[in-house]
Structures are given as structure tokens and as C-alpha cells.
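> example.struct
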């Protein structure tokens, strides 16, 4: 029962992430207008148009008012968010750790789709995420759920991510936005999971780049948004770093 509740909450949060992904890079307020509107005809959406995933399926991916196609991206973001939240809940339950992983993944999902659409990241989303995760840490330490040792491990994770990414940023192999995103991931998940996070992100990113090169779809490495791979790597690490780390470190 709790599982279904978590999925519904995940879909609703995913619907909010769509607003963030669409409005922030376009310099629009998140709170005003309160109601979302069709990106094409600007018609305000009714309550029924706002039901995550189902409204899109019901309207067969078209705007009720102008008939313009609504991107598949919207239900996709909602489903990815719900599945991600659910998987973290299954693995970590309703704990402070789970909550901080969920906040991290919400930030990463938003940044990944902004990176795909605009080839940039939104620093404000990162700052809000960092503040929330930092506050959870402080609360966790005050209530003895997080030890100082755990916290130091998070700092080491951040330093590791910073060092590795800086090495990749300097020759231009990775963008500065990716560095900022990786620092927040390192700080949230800690040292050992960060090894797995970096390994998985670059492993998957590398394979996809090779496939893209083979099909000559993208010739420049710099033209490939990398945050989606960081998001995927972070999720894999959060869910399975203990199981996978032996394969990486031998
Ligand atoms: Zn419309």
C-alpha cells in the first residue's frame, strides 16, 4: 500500500519537475502562474490535463485546446521520477538517507533534461538541492542518525568527485556544469559510492559515445549532454554500489 502511495507521490513530483525543467531555463517563475499552460497555445491547463501520465495517454499526446503535439518528454519525466523514488524507497525505506538520495535524484533528473534541451545546467536547482541535503545532514547529526564519520565520508566523496572531474574539465573533456553536478553527487553519496558513480557514468557515457560515433550522429564529444549519464551513474551507485564495487576495484 505504501508502495503505491510512493509511486503516486513520485508521479506528482515528476509533474512538478516538468514545470521546473520548462520554466527555469526560460526565466519564468515557478510559482506564477500557478497553473501550467500549453507551451504551444498558452491555454491554461485544466485539472484533468494535469493528471500525470494518464492525461497525456488519454489525450494521445495532443493539447486538448489547440491539438498541437505534446512532447513525450512530459510523461517520461513523470515515470522516471516515480520509478526512481520507488526504487530508493525499496532499498532504503523511509529514512533520512533515503530522503537525501531522493532529493539528489530529483535535482539530477531536472538537470539531465535541462542539459538535453539547452546544453547547460541550472545552478539554482543545484543550490536548492545542496541546501536541502545539507539541512538533512545537520538534522541527522542532531538526532544521531548520521555520525560525524558519515559526514566526513560525504566530504571525501565530494573531494573525490571534484578532483576527478577537474582533471577531466581542464583538457575540455567534460563541461564545468558536469563538475558542479558531480560535486553535489559526491557529497550526498559519500566516498566509496562516488567511485562507483564516476565509473558507471563514464562507462555508460563512453559506450553511448562510441555507438554515436559509429553511426556518425554526433561527431563532437562536446555536443553530447553528459548530465543524463551522471544521473544514471548516481542512481546505479545509490542502488547497487556495494554489489558492484568489487568488480571495479577487483
Ligand atoms: Zn495548446
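> example.seq
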Amino acid at each position: 500500500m505504501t508502495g503505491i502511495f510512493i509511486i503516486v507521490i513520485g508521479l506528482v513530483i515528476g509533474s512538478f519537475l516538468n514545470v521546473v525543467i520548462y520554466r527555469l531555463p526560460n526565466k519564468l517563475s515557478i510559482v506564477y502562474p500557478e497553473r501550467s499552460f500549453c507551451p504551444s497555445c498558452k491555454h491554461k491547463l485544466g485539472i484533468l490535463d494535469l493528471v500525470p501520465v494518464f492525461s497525456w495517454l488519454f489525450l494521445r499526446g495532443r493539447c486538448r485546446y489547440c491539438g498541437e503535439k505534446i512532447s513525450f518528454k512530459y510523461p517520461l519525466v513523470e515515470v522516471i521520477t516515480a520509478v526512481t523514488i520507488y526504487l530508493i524507497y525499496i532499498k532504503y525505506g523511509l529514512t533520512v538517507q533515503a530522503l537525501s538520495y531522493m532529493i539528489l535524484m530529483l535535482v539530477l533528473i531536472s538537470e539531465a533534461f535541462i542539459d538535453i534541451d539547452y546544453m547547460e545546467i541550472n545552478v539554482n536547482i543545484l543550490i536548492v538541492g545542496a541546501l536541502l541535503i545539507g539541512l538533512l545532514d545537520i538534522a541527522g547529526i542532531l538526532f544521531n542518525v548520521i555520525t560525524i564519520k558519515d559526514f566526513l565520508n560525504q566530504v571525501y566523496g565530494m573531494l573525490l568527485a571534484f578532483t576527478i572531474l577537474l582533471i577531466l574539465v581542464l583538457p575540455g573533456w567534460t563541461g564545468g556544469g558536469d563538475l558542479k553536478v558531480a560535486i553535489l553527487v559526491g557529497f550526498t553519496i559519500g566516498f566509496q559510492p562516488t567511485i562507483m558513480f564516476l565509473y558507471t557514468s563514464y562507462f555508460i557515457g563512453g559506450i553511448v559515445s562510441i555507438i554515436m560515433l559509429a553511426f556518425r550522429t554526433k561527431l563532437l564529444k562536446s555536443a553530447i549532454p553528459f548530465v543524463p549519464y551522471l544521473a544514471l551513474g548516481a542512481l546505479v551507485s545509490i542502488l547497487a554500489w556495494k554489489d558492484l564495487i568489487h568488480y571495479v576495484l577487483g
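> remarks
The chain is about 70% helix and 0% strand.
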